[in-house]
Amino acid sequence: IHSFCKKDDHNKENLFNTINYDVAAKKRKKDLLNNKAKTQYFHQEKWIYVHKGSTKERHGYCTLGEAFNRLDFSSAILDSRRFNYVVRLLELIAKSQLTSLSGIAQKNYMNILEKVVQKVLEDQQNIRLIRELLQTLYTSLCTLVQRVGKSVLVGNINMWVHRMESILHWQQQLNNIQITRPAFKGTTFTDLPLCLQLNIMQRLSDGRDLVSLGQVAPDLQVLSEDRLLWKKLCQYHFTDRQIRKRLILSDKGQLDWKKMYFKLIRCYPRKEQYGDTLQLCRHCHILSWKGTDHPCTANNPETCSTSLSPQEFINLFRF
């Protein structure tokens, strides 16, 4: 009997070791599948109720993660009018809202970000914008990963390390982009009259684009230093009061609008303008993209819609 009990204990020990090994193997396989998952969660309805409290008709709260899953951002990034809006929203989430996203919403966030990077790699546009987004996200993740164990991120630490490696890979891909010169040999920008060149340059809303354009050719360098051009840019983005607080005089005693612009952007946020934005219906509290049908009971639903900036969208889910 004594020898039988020892043998039985030995078999139990082997059994437990086998079970532990199987559990560990399954967990590693699950983590690997989660890291490689590219599934986007689609919903038939491309709108969502935004309500901050429970009622008899509606139960629970609408969260940022739920809205992010439902509002069809994958299609929005393919629309040039919505692209900058979505990128700005991704940047704001990366700065301060990552921990408020659910696990599914975080996976969708990374999938959409990958599609954004692939789009930029294909059409070679908005490179600097996406570089800044990736750098913001990577910096935030470095801070959050250091606090592992305090429940600040949903998911296994290995999964987030894998995502950070993906971000570094995307950054390297963007750095290696070689802009191809178009084969078109017709009229170029520098062939246009100077008044038209200056008129087009006035449409640029980022001073860094003006500086880059001025580096293309000597004639463009002269136009990019136009005082009136930088004055209009300052007046577009900032109020008179903000401008008066940051006055800079040149050696000739004139206002140096170019230096003032770059000083102002370090002190104040620039004006944001988008071709298309998310709309909030004041009548039925439904959030959707412009042109999306939703079950509104108002007589004139178009008059009830209010455009939301990316920051206003984030503020809807701060309770």
TrEMBL record:
Keywords, ordered alphabetically: Cytoplasm, Nucleus, Ubl conjugation pathway
Pathway: Protein modification; protein ubiquitination
A Gene Ontology BP annotation from the UniProt entry: protein ubiquitination
Any one of the GO CC terms: SCF ubiquitin ligase complex
InterPro entries with a match to the protein in the record: F-box-like_dom_sf, FBX25/32
Subcellular location: Cytoplasm; Nucleus
Coiled coil: none
Keyword Protein transport in record: no
The keyword Secreted belongs to this UniProt entry's keyword annotation: no
Superkingdom of origin: Eukaryota
Complex and partners: Part of the SCF (SKP1-CUL1-F-box) E3 ubiquitin-protein ligase complex SCF(FBXO32) formed of CUL1, SKP1, RBX1 and FBXO32.
Function recorded in the entry: Substrate recognition component of a SCF (SKP1-CUL1-F-box protein) E3 ubiquitin-protein ligase complex which mediates the ubiquitination and subsequent proteasomal degradation of target proteins. Probably recognizes and binds to phosphorylated target proteins during skeletal muscle atrophy. Recognizes TERF1.
Protein name: F-box only protein 32
Native species: Daphoenositta chrysoptera
Recorded name of the encoding gene: Fbxo32
